[in-house]
Amino acid sequence: MKTLKLRIKDKHCKVLDQLASEVNFVWNYVNDLCFKHLKKTGQFFSAYDIAKYTKGTSKECHLHSQTIQAVTEELITRRKQFKKAKLKWRVSSKKSAKYSLGWIPFKKVAIKYQNGQVKYGNHWFSFWDSYGLSKYNVKTGSFVEDSRGRWYVCLVVETLEAEKSTVTKAIGIDLGLKDIATCSDGTIISNPKFYCQYEQKLGIDQRAKNKKRVRALHAKIANSRKDYLHKASTQLVRENALIIVGDLSAKKLVKTKLAKSVLDTGFSSLKTMLKYKCENAGVLFEEVNEAYTTQICSCCKKISSSSPKGRMNLGIREWQCMECGTFHDRDINSALNILALGHERLAGEITSLKQR
Questions:
Q1: Burial of 291 (C-beta count, 10 Å sphere; 0-12/13-18/19+)
Q2: Which domains does the chain have, with CATH numbers?
Q3: Could you tell me the pTM of the whole model?
Q4: 183 near 235, Cβ under 8 Å?
Q5: Residue 332 pLDDT more than 80?
Q6: Strand, helix or coil at 183?
Q7: Are the C-beta atoms of residues 131 and 6 closer than 8 Å to each other?
Q8: Distances (CA, A) of 40 to 35, 56, 83, 296, 300
Q9: Which candidate, 60, 63, 73, places its Cα nearest to that of 34?
Q10: pLDDT tens-digit readout, 142-169
């Protein structure tokens, strides 16, 4: 399963805004109903219990009955996830600082699609079909709005059968900040630093309080980064049969002084893309603990006194092992150690399966 995101043409924005407002009304009504029932009885409503209270809502709100059901199920799911008696209200007014971006969920029976158009209710919405939607089997989806007021239709579809790859190459990948990724074969995915490229323009527009331009620049930065990472991850998956990645945590690094660089790099997104693309292409993907991989010599497997240690030695990009005399590039050495750890894990898994 994967999600396809397709841009709806701007001429349909007003209709979608109105439908999103109705969705917000249903969400707020169900949210308030559940909270009042909890205060009165001490028990939570289930999605089944709420159904009798929302009966007939689809005709009044001009929404499909499956949308009403999907909104209710989503609210119940998020209430359990966040362990809250009452969730936040969805605000429909675009003038409000707390405006909730538009969202219209639906299931397969609620839509029809043909020739670059999707039908929901009595409306046909045109979109740019960049994927060739007719060859996919749609399961569910939603209309969503971005911060610039543009609408998209997100469709969850069954993935097509991928051709079996004939490559046999295996690589280890060391994620970082100077370069997004360094591979054990010497391949380097450089860091374009998209945020830094537009930082000065962004600052000018923020000081001028030009919110529309600020949102446009943020979208441009995010889209440029995403496009770059998609191309890099696709190339890695095509050229390799086994990909092993270190478990570098962006969540932990964001809490340090390196936060800005971490967020601009986007190596966490690269890791996520590699994982699901490997699953789709039939490529093996492993994530291993990368502790000490920078310090250990990939030749003699020892930590020498000359190896770079901790964040204090981030400036050391090349070093020589005092034990065996091998010269190392810091990141390539780490990638080679990550590759070796991945092979060890796979060998251990194969051994355990044989013993069973």
A1: exposed
A2: 2-157 (no CATH), 164-356 (3.30.420)
A3: 0.84
A4: no
A5: yes
A6: strand
A7: yes
A8: 9, 25, 19, 63, 70
A9: 73
A10: 999 998 999 999 999 987 776 677 788 9
